[in-house]
Model the fold of this input.
Amino acid sequence: MTESADLTEARMRFIYTIRSRGVTDSRVLSAMEKIDRRAFVTGIFIERAYEDTPLPIACGQTISQPSVVALMTEALRVGTRDKVLEIGTGSGYQAAILSVLARRVYTVERHRALAQRAQKVFDALGLANITCIVSDGSHGLPDLAPFDRIIVTAAAEDPPGPLLAQLRVGGIMVIPVGQSDTVQTLIRVLRTEAGFEYEELRAVRFVPLVEGMGQ
Ligand code: SAH
Done:
């Protein structure tokens, strides 16, 4: 088989694995099909890009497990007119998936080197509706609020107050929370006229949300 036939088969198996983890939303599955995870990993990890596992990226961080990216994206119920905020750009993979589904994506990263690399990948793939901002994401982006959807891809003890405040009424936030570094719970927060409704989705494991800027 040629290399490209191998890659096509590997990507088909990749989508099959994501479906087998319980992701059924066809818009999410087609976004996962469209965005090639290989573009977001580097060096020796490129050949493992289609494995359903987190992989190391620069600055001691990780690109999330693809089935978790898909499940979080599904849980976020993104609409085509939505303005989405992501905290924790990392490789940029989750932001790229969101950019296929939403009108606009703002993604915030505390490590400048990661943000710069992600921006290069967005440019190369022609994903023009993503803005990558270097900042401490626990404060959100007050000047651009409110957001229809907020996704946090690093774990906090509780949803940060500024992020809850920047969620539109009727908006949804998905965030891993928990005190331990090893096991956290993915929760979905719905903002209603009356306040916030919380729903526990599943156990997950993310790198921590860290205050302040990276090196
Ligand atoms: N969504 C990423 C995975 C991110 S790993 C992807 O698709 O690849 C979590 C990321 O959150 C790391 O890059 C880490 O540097 C970043 N992070 C942690 N705390 C942060 C904070 N307070 N503000 C912004 N980014 C933060």
In short: The chain has six helices and nine strands. The helical segments are 3-20, 26-34, 66-76, 93-101, 112-125, 161-165. The first strand starts at residue 55 and ends at 56. The longest helix spans residues 3-20.
